[in-house]
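Memo to structure team: turn this sequence into structure tokens by end of day. - J.P.
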Amino acid sequence: MVIITNFQPPKEIEDLADRLYNNNGYTSLEILLTDAIDTSKTEWTVDKECKVGDTVLFMCAKTAKDHIAHVCAEAKKLNDNELINFAEEERKKYNSYAGHLLAVGMLEDLPFQDVSDFPYQGWKSPWYGKICDLKLFDHPVSIDDFRDFINISRTGSITKLTNEQWSQLKQVILNNGNIIRL
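Reply from structure team:
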């Protein structure tokens, strides 16, 4: 199975503040980027039916721009300069990655149920997977390059790809100047 797991920035001010003050400023984007660079491994939400060896593609949601703009506005209302600065930094990062595939990895173990360490998280799935061989794309791939043959799920964070979709998407990824080993 090949899936795209779609992630968002914090959607509410409580989540943003928790990330800043209790998690060293690590949002989903920083976790993905850091894990890919430091260890080539991560734990992330996956489909409960995934199997060992399945391919996981990581996409920053196109709607990330709207969500991060909302929390920036909320931060300004609180007059907390540290939180405002953090929100603005996150806005720049998420705006540059919104609507793009950023990385690919492989499921190392069967999915498991877990409770997140983030009390204000925006996702609802309890299904996680240990992902290895995590590699950032040298050139993130815009949804505009594949939206004509893949509809990203708007009701959940996981989109399952058919073999044909994966074949087409691999070609798009390669055409964007990326190397994939899957």
